Amino acid sequence: MVDAHNSGSPLNRRDLAEPQFLAAAGISRIDVVDSTGSTNADLLRAAGVDPGHWPDLSVLTAEYQTAARGRLDRQWETPPLSSVSVSLVLRPVNADGRPLPTQSYSWLSLIAALALREMLQETAGLAAELKWPNDVLVGGRKIAGILAQLGPMTDGTVPPVILGTGLNVTLGQDELPVPTATSVLLADGTTTDRTLLLKGYLKRFAVLYRQFCNADGDPTAGMGGGASLHKRVEANMATLGKQVRAQLPGDHEIIGHASRLDEYGSLLVVDRDSREHVVTAGDVVHLRPWPAGDGSGTGGYA
Protein backbone atom coordinates (compact mmCIF):
# COMPACT_ATOMS: atom_id res chain seq x y z
CA MET A 1 0.00 0.00 0.00
CA VAL A 2 1.47 3.36 -1.05
CA ASP A 3 0.94 6.29 1.30
CA ALA A 4 -0.06 9.68 -0.06
CA HIS A 5 2.11 12.77 0.28
CA ASN A 6 5.37 10.96 -0.47
CA SER A 7 7.58 13.99 -0.87
CA GLY A 8 10.67 13.38 -2.95
CA SER A 9 14.18 14.69 -2.41
CA PRO A 10 15.46 17.89 -4.01
CA LEU A 11 17.25 17.59 -7.33
CA ASN A 12 21.00 17.12 -7.04
CA ARG A 13 22.15 20.33 -8.71
CA ARG A 14 25.81 19.34 -8.63
CA ASP A 15 25.06 16.12 -10.55
CA LEU A 16 22.96 17.98 -13.10
CA ALA A 17 25.68 20.58 -13.67
CA GLU A 18 28.45 17.99 -14.01
CA PRO A 19 30.42 18.97 -17.16
CA GLN A 20 30.83 15.38 -18.39
CA PHE A 21 27.07 14.80 -18.31
CA LEU A 22 26.31 18.09 -20.05
CA ALA A 23 28.93 17.47 -22.74
CA ALA A 24 27.81 13.89 -23.36
CA ALA A 25 24.20 14.99 -23.79
CA GLY A 26 25.09 18.12 -25.75
CA ILE A 27 23.20 20.29 -23.26
CA SER A 28 24.30 23.90 -23.53
CA ARG A 29 23.00 25.06 -20.15
CA ILE A 30 20.79 23.79 -17.34
CA ASP A 31 19.06 26.00 -14.79
CA VAL A 32 17.29 24.66 -11.69
CA VAL A 33 14.81 26.89 -9.85
CA ASP A 34 13.00 26.21 -6.60
CA SER A 35 9.62 27.42 -7.77
CA THR A 36 8.00 29.01 -10.80
CA GLY A 37 4.63 29.31 -12.45
CA SER A 38 5.56 27.38 -15.58
CA THR A 39 8.95 26.42 -17.00
CA ASN A 40 7.50 26.61 -20.52
CA ALA A 41 6.18 30.13 -19.96
CA ASP A 42 9.54 31.19 -18.50
CA LEU A 43 11.47 29.89 -21.51
CA LEU A 44 9.03 31.33 -24.04
CA ARG A 45 9.65 34.72 -22.47
CA ALA A 46 13.43 34.33 -21.99
CA ALA A 47 14.05 32.97 -25.49
CA GLY A 48 12.36 36.05 -26.92
CA VAL A 49 14.03 38.64 -24.70
CA ASP A 50 17.56 37.23 -24.82
CA PRO A 51 17.84 34.47 -27.45
CA GLY A 52 21.65 34.46 -27.38
CA HIS A 53 21.63 33.24 -23.79
CA TRP A 54 19.29 30.34 -24.55
CA PRO A 55 20.87 28.28 -27.35
CA ASP A 56 19.71 24.90 -28.62
CA LEU A 57 19.25 22.30 -25.84
CA SER A 58 19.07 24.82 -23.02
CA VAL A 59 17.22 23.31 -20.06
CA LEU A 60 15.07 24.81 -17.29
CA THR A 61 13.73 22.59 -14.52
CA ALA A 62 11.77 23.45 -11.39
CA GLU A 63 11.31 21.75 -8.04
CA TYR A 64 7.77 23.13 -7.91
CA GLN A 65 5.41 24.49 -10.54
CA THR A 66 2.43 26.53 -9.37
CA ALA A 67 0.75 27.01 -12.76
CA ALA A 68 1.75 24.11 -15.00
CA ARG A 69 -0.13 24.18 -18.28
CA GLY A 70 -0.97 21.51 -20.79
CA ARG A 71 -2.65 21.38 -24.15
CA LEU A 72 -5.60 23.73 -24.65
CA ASP A 73 -4.40 25.80 -21.67
CA ARG A 74 -5.41 23.20 -19.08
CA GLN A 75 -3.81 24.02 -15.73
CA TRP A 76 -3.04 22.17 -12.52
CA GLU A 77 -0.63 22.06 -9.58
CA THR A 78 1.28 19.19 -8.00
CA PRO A 79 3.08 19.08 -4.62
CA PRO A 80 6.70 20.31 -4.42
CA LEU A 81 9.43 17.74 -5.16
CA SER A 82 6.87 15.25 -6.52
CA SER A 83 7.46 15.50 -10.27
CA VAL A 84 10.05 16.10 -12.94
CA SER A 85 9.04 19.42 -14.51
CA VAL A 86 11.43 20.37 -17.30
CA SER A 87 11.44 22.49 -20.45
CA LEU A 88 13.97 22.69 -23.26
CA VAL A 89 14.76 25.31 -25.88
CA LEU A 90 15.08 23.64 -29.27
CA ARG A 91 16.54 25.36 -32.32
CA PRO A 92 16.62 22.43 -34.75
CA VAL A 93 19.34 22.55 -37.39
CA ASN A 94 21.14 19.79 -39.28
CA ALA A 95 24.86 19.02 -39.11
CA ASP A 96 25.55 21.84 -41.59
CA GLY A 97 23.61 24.38 -39.54
CA ARG A 98 20.64 24.47 -41.88
CA PRO A 99 17.28 24.88 -40.06
CA LEU A 100 14.89 21.95 -40.23
CA PRO A 101 11.62 22.46 -42.12
CA THR A 102 8.99 23.62 -39.65
CA GLN A 103 6.60 20.86 -40.77
CA SER A 104 8.98 18.43 -39.05
CA TYR A 105 8.44 20.13 -35.68
CA SER A 106 5.34 18.03 -34.97
CA TRP A 107 7.68 15.08 -34.33
CA LEU A 108 9.52 16.79 -31.47
CA SER A 109 6.92 15.95 -28.83
CA LEU A 110 6.88 12.35 -30.09
CA ILE A 111 10.67 12.22 -29.72
CA ALA A 112 10.23 13.38 -26.11
CA ALA A 113 7.62 10.67 -25.50
CA LEU A 114 9.93 8.02 -26.95
CA ALA A 115 12.81 9.24 -24.78
CA LEU A 116 10.59 9.10 -21.69
CA ARG A 117 9.49 5.57 -22.57
CA GLU A 118 13.10 4.40 -22.93
CA MET A 119 14.14 6.11 -19.70
CA LEU A 120 11.25 4.63 -17.69
CA GLN A 121 12.14 1.15 -18.95
CA GLU A 122 15.88 1.41 -18.35
CA THR A 123 16.00 3.60 -15.22
CA ALA A 124 12.80 2.71 -13.35
CA GLY A 125 11.99 -0.75 -14.74
CA LEU A 126 8.57 0.35 -16.00
CA ALA A 127 7.03 -0.76 -19.29
CA ALA A 128 5.58 2.39 -20.87
CA GLU A 129 3.62 3.13 -24.04
CA LEU A 130 2.90 6.27 -26.04
CA LYS A 131 -0.60 7.68 -26.30
CA TRP A 132 -1.10 9.98 -29.26
CA PRO A 133 -0.54 12.88 -29.39
CA ASN A 134 1.51 13.69 -26.29
CA ASP A 135 1.15 11.35 -23.32
CA VAL A 136 3.13 8.45 -21.89
CA LEU A 137 1.21 5.64 -20.19
CA VAL A 138 2.16 2.94 -17.70
CA GLY A 139 -0.45 0.22 -17.19
CA GLY A 140 -2.86 2.25 -19.31
CA ARG A 141 -2.57 5.25 -16.97
CA LYS A 142 -0.97 8.58 -17.75
CA ILE A 143 2.42 9.03 -16.09
CA ALA A 144 3.74 11.89 -18.21
CA GLY A 145 2.61 14.54 -20.65
CA ILE A 146 4.39 16.78 -23.12
CA LEU A 147 3.68 20.26 -24.44
CA ALA A 148 5.50 21.80 -27.44
CA GLN A 149 5.05 25.52 -28.09
CA LEU A 150 6.49 27.67 -30.87
CA GLY A 151 8.55 30.52 -29.46
CA PRO A 152 8.84 34.06 -30.79
CA MET A 153 10.78 34.93 -33.93
CA THR A 154 13.55 37.41 -33.17
CA ASP A 155 15.92 39.16 -35.58
CA GLY A 156 14.49 37.19 -38.50
CA THR A 157 15.75 33.90 -37.08
CA VAL A 158 13.76 30.67 -37.06
CA PRO A 159 11.51 30.62 -33.97
CA PRO A 160 12.56 28.12 -31.30
CA VAL A 161 10.40 25.32 -29.99
CA ILE A 162 9.87 25.20 -26.23
CA LEU A 163 9.30 21.58 -25.23
CA GLY A 164 7.89 20.96 -21.77
CA THR A 165 7.65 17.60 -20.04
CA GLY A 166 5.99 16.68 -16.78
CA LEU A 167 6.60 13.27 -15.20
CA ASN A 168 4.65 12.19 -12.09
CA VAL A 169 7.21 10.69 -9.71
CA THR A 170 6.14 10.47 -6.05
CA LEU A 171 2.50 11.53 -6.23
CA GLY A 172 0.07 9.46 -4.16
CA GLN A 173 -3.36 8.48 -5.43
CA ASP A 174 -5.10 11.52 -3.94
CA GLU A 175 -2.51 13.91 -5.45
CA LEU A 176 -2.85 12.89 -9.09
CA PRO A 177 -4.03 15.58 -11.54
CA VAL A 178 -6.72 13.20 -12.87
CA PRO A 179 -7.96 9.88 -11.41
CA THR A 180 -6.74 7.99 -14.50
CA ALA A 181 -3.12 9.08 -13.97
CA THR A 182 -0.34 7.28 -12.13
CA SER A 183 3.20 7.99 -10.88
CA VAL A 184 6.53 6.19 -10.79
CA LEU A 185 5.88 5.47 -7.11
CA LEU A 186 2.36 4.13 -7.62
CA ALA A 187 3.53 2.00 -10.54
CA ASP A 188 6.24 0.46 -8.33
CA GLY A 189 9.19 1.85 -10.27
CA THR A 190 12.60 0.68 -9.13
CA THR A 191 13.68 4.25 -8.32
CA THR A 192 11.99 7.56 -7.54
CA ASP A 193 15.26 9.52 -7.65
CA ARG A 194 14.20 12.58 -9.64
CA THR A 195 17.78 13.47 -10.54
CA LEU A 196 18.39 10.03 -12.07
CA LEU A 197 15.07 10.16 -13.94
CA LEU A 198 15.74 13.67 -15.28
CA LYS A 199 19.29 12.88 -16.39
CA GLY A 200 18.14 9.67 -18.06
CA TYR A 201 15.42 11.50 -19.95
CA LEU A 202 17.69 14.35 -21.08
CA LYS A 203 20.40 11.95 -22.31
CA ARG A 204 17.96 9.87 -24.33
CA PHE A 205 16.13 12.88 -25.71
CA ALA A 206 19.36 14.55 -26.82
CA VAL A 207 20.49 11.45 -28.75
CA LEU A 208 17.16 11.02 -30.56
CA TYR A 209 16.86 14.74 -31.24
CA ARG A 210 20.35 15.02 -32.72
CA GLN A 211 19.76 11.99 -34.96
CA PHE A 212 16.49 13.52 -36.15
CA CYS A 213 18.16 16.86 -36.86
CA ASN A 214 21.02 15.21 -38.74
CA ALA A 215 18.40 13.42 -40.88
CA ASP A 216 17.02 16.86 -41.83
CA GLY A 217 13.85 16.14 -39.85
CA ASP A 218 12.97 13.11 -41.98
CA PRO A 219 11.02 10.69 -39.73
CA THR A 220 11.48 7.84 -42.23
CA ALA A 221 15.29 7.92 -42.06
CA GLY A 222 17.04 5.22 -40.04
CA MET A 223 18.24 6.39 -36.62
CA GLY A 224 21.55 5.26 -35.25
CA GLY A 225 21.68 2.38 -37.69
CA GLY A 226 18.28 1.13 -36.53
CA ALA A 227 14.63 1.67 -37.31
CA SER A 228 13.30 5.08 -38.32
CA LEU A 229 11.68 7.46 -35.85
CA HIS A 230 8.34 6.86 -37.58
CA LYS A 231 8.61 3.08 -37.09
CA ARG A 232 9.86 3.36 -33.50
CA VAL A 233 7.02 5.67 -32.49
CA GLU A 234 4.37 3.52 -34.20
CA ALA A 235 5.76 0.34 -32.59
CA ASN A 236 5.32 1.81 -29.11
CA MET A 237 2.02 3.65 -29.61
CA ALA A 238 -0.88 2.18 -27.63
CA THR A 239 -3.38 4.24 -29.67
CA LEU A 240 -2.83 2.40 -32.96
CA GLY A 241 -5.10 -0.51 -33.80
CA LYS A 242 -7.81 0.74 -31.43
CA GLN A 243 -11.27 2.14 -32.00
CA VAL A 244 -11.16 5.79 -30.96
CA ARG A 245 -13.30 8.89 -30.75
CA ALA A 246 -11.49 12.07 -31.75
CA GLN A 247 -13.25 15.15 -30.42
CA LEU A 248 -12.49 18.23 -32.52
CA PRO A 249 -13.27 21.94 -32.09
CA GLY A 250 -16.85 23.03 -32.74
CA ASP A 251 -18.36 19.80 -31.36
CA HIS A 252 -17.14 17.80 -34.35
CA GLU A 253 -16.01 14.24 -33.82
CA ILE A 254 -14.53 11.33 -35.74
CA ILE A 255 -15.11 7.75 -34.63
CA GLY A 256 -13.10 4.99 -36.21
CA HIS A 257 -10.01 2.80 -36.28
CA ALA A 258 -6.68 4.48 -35.45
CA SER A 259 -4.62 2.96 -38.25
CA ARG A 260 -1.24 4.70 -38.48
CA LEU A 261 0.71 7.97 -38.33
CA ASP A 262 1.39 10.00 -41.46
CA GLU A 263 4.68 11.68 -42.35
CA TYR A 264 3.85 14.64 -40.10
CA GLY A 265 3.01 12.55 -37.03
CA SER A 266 -0.73 13.11 -37.48
CA LEU A 267 -3.10 10.26 -36.63
CA LEU A 268 -5.03 8.59 -39.46
CA VAL A 269 -8.48 7.36 -38.42
CA VAL A 270 -10.59 5.16 -40.72
CA ASP A 271 -14.34 5.55 -40.13
CA ARG A 272 -17.09 2.95 -40.64
CA ASP A 273 -17.43 4.00 -44.28
CA SER A 274 -13.71 3.30 -44.88
CA ARG A 275 -12.91 6.99 -45.22
CA GLU A 276 -9.52 8.01 -43.86
CA HIS A 277 -9.39 11.16 -41.72
CA VAL A 278 -6.25 13.05 -40.74
CA VAL A 279 -6.33 14.16 -37.09
CA THR A 280 -3.60 16.66 -36.16
CA ALA A 281 -2.27 17.19 -32.66
CA GLY A 282 -3.08 20.89 -32.90
CA ASP A 283 -6.75 20.25 -33.64
CA VAL A 284 -7.75 17.37 -31.39
CA VAL A 285 -9.49 18.29 -28.12
CA HIS A 286 -9.75 14.75 -26.73
CA LEU A 287 -8.84 11.34 -28.08
CA ARG A 288 -10.41 8.44 -26.21
CA PRO A 289 -11.12 4.76 -26.72
CA TRP A 290 -14.54 4.03 -28.18
CA PRO A 291 -17.13 3.02 -27.08
CA ALA A 292 -15.83 3.04 -23.51
CA GLY A 293 -13.85 6.23 -22.78
CA ASP A 294 -11.28 5.89 -20.01
CA GLY A 295 -10.89 9.62 -19.36
CA SER A 296 -7.13 9.48 -19.76
CA GLY A 297 -7.11 11.68 -22.84
CA THR A 298 -6.85 15.00 -21.02
CA GLY A 299 -3.55 15.61 -22.78
CA GLY A 300 -0.76 17.94 -21.83
CA TYR A 301 2.24 18.25 -19.65
CA ALA A 302 1.25 16.13 -16.67
Structural features, described:
The protein has 302 residues and is α+β, with helices and mostly antiparallel strands. Helices cover 22% and strands 25% of the residues. It is built from 6 helices and 14 strands. The strands form 3 sheets. A 7-stranded mixed sheet has the order 1-2-5-9-8-7-6. Strands 13-12-11-10-14 form a 5-stranded antiparallel sheet, with no helix packed on it. A two-stranded antiparallel sheet has the order 3-4. A hairpin with a 2-residue loop joins strand 7 (135-138) and strand 8 (141-150). Mean pLDDT is 91; it is low at 1-5 and 293-302.
Brief account:
This protein has 302 residues and is an alpha+beta fold. Helices cover 22% and strands 25% of the residues.
Characteristic key phrases:
single chain, 22% helix, five-stranded antiparallel β-sheet, globular, 25% strand, disordered N terminus, 302 residues, seven-stranded mixed β-sheet, alpha+beta
What form results from the Cα inertia axes? Answer: globular
What structural class should be given to the helix and strand makeup?
A: alpha+beta
Strand sequence of the main sheet, in spatial order?
Answer: 1-2-5-9-8-7-6
Distance between the termini: 23 Å
**Low-confidence residue ranges:** 1-5, 293-302
